[in-house]
Amino acid sequence: MTGSDDRPPHFLFVTGRLAEFALRRELEALAPRAGFVAEVAVLPISVAALMPPKWVARHLEVGESIDKVILPGHCKGDLAQVVEKAGGRPVERGPEDLRDLPRFFNQGERRRDGYGMQNIAILAEINHAPRLTHGDILAIAERFRAEGADLIDLGCDPGGPWSGAGDAVKALKDAGHRVSIDSFDPVEVEQAIEAGAELVLSVNGTNREFAKSWGVEVVAIPDRPGTLEGLEATMEFLDKHDMPFRVDPIVEPIGFGFAASLGRYLEVRTRFPDVEMLMGVGNLTELTDCDSAGINTILIGFCQELAIKSVLTTAVINWARSSVREIDLARRLVYHAVMNRTPPKRLEPLLVMLRDPQVPRHGRDVLAEMQRLIKDPNWRIFAEDGTIYAINSQHFLSDPDPFVLFGQMGVEDASHAFYLGQELMKARTALTLNKAYRQDRALEWGFLTDEEVSHRGGSNFGPSS
Question: Which fold has domain 7-104?
Answer without folding.
Answer: Rossmann fold (3.40.50)
